[in-house]
Design a protein that fits this description.
The protein has seven helices and ten strands. The N and C termini lie far apart (88 Å). Strands 1, 2, 3, 4, 5, 6, 7, 8, 9 and 10 form a ten-stranded mixed sheet that branches.
């Protein structure tokens, strides 16, 4: 082996050793490697990065875009995707009957979260109301609560609380399944246009259901 070739082999070997030992430093910049490389910019452990890589591409792209604007929020939302679902399966109260007065469908307020399911408001025999969620499925997040809002399509806390016309219903029972929430008779639904699921811990609207049907 010539001296030049031997020197080249030694150089390549040294580079490989250096790259191996400095991997934690340059790993976050592997944006073109699917899975671990892309999600490493979120600063999460490698096992979480691999799990996040299984997200739909559009949702993963939204998380990575959000990281450029607010890395803390992006990290919290990324971890929210990995939280275990809280599934609720309430029966429809028999007193509700057929008095369905308002309907709507949940949709995501952020590109980084999933949201689907039906929302129905029933009037009971005593004049009170029950908010019913059917087949709810939203990305889990900490400290989620249910609100009524005057806004039809609230995407932020400011929009949800517009003109001070909002009402706290209850803590969200679960991020998946069927569930019921009671409203007192004095709650005037004519002043509201949506049901909102809001994360108190993150300060974000997760999902909302606009009152698309009034009977």
């Amino acid at each position: 082996m010539s001296s030049q070739l031997r020197a080249l082999v030694v150089l390549v070997g040294a580079l490989l050793v250096a790259l191996t030992y400095t991997f934690p430093l340059w790993q976050p910049f592997l944006g073109l490697i699917p899975g671990r490389g892309e999600t490493a910019v979120l600063g999460l452990p490698s096992d979480m990065s691999e799990q996040l890589a299984a997200l739909p591409p559009d949702r993963l792209d939204a998380l990575l875009d959000l990281a450029d604007e607010d890395i803390d929020l992006a990290q919290n939302l990324a971890m929210a995707h990995l939280r275990q679902d809280r599934f609720i399966n309430d029966d429809v109260p028999s007193a509700v009957g057929q008095n369905r007065i308002i309907g709507g469908q949940f949709q995501s307020a952020l590109g980084t979260v999933e949201a689907e399911g039906d929302m129905t408001i029933y009037e009971t025999v005593d004049g009170s109301h029950i908010i019913r969620f059917d087949d709810l499925n939203i990305t889990n997040a900490p400290e989620m609560r249910v609100y009524l809002s005057a806004a039809s399509n609230p995407l932020t806390q400011e929009e949800m609380e517009q003109n001070g016309n909002f009402h706290t219903v209850a803590e969200l029972l679960g991020n998946a399944g069927n569930q019921n929430y009671s409203l007192a008779p004095e709650i005037d639904l004519s002043g509201y246009n949506s049901v909102v699921i809001y994360s108190e811990a993150l300060g974000i609207v997760v999902a909302y259901a606009r009152f698309s049907l009034r009977l």
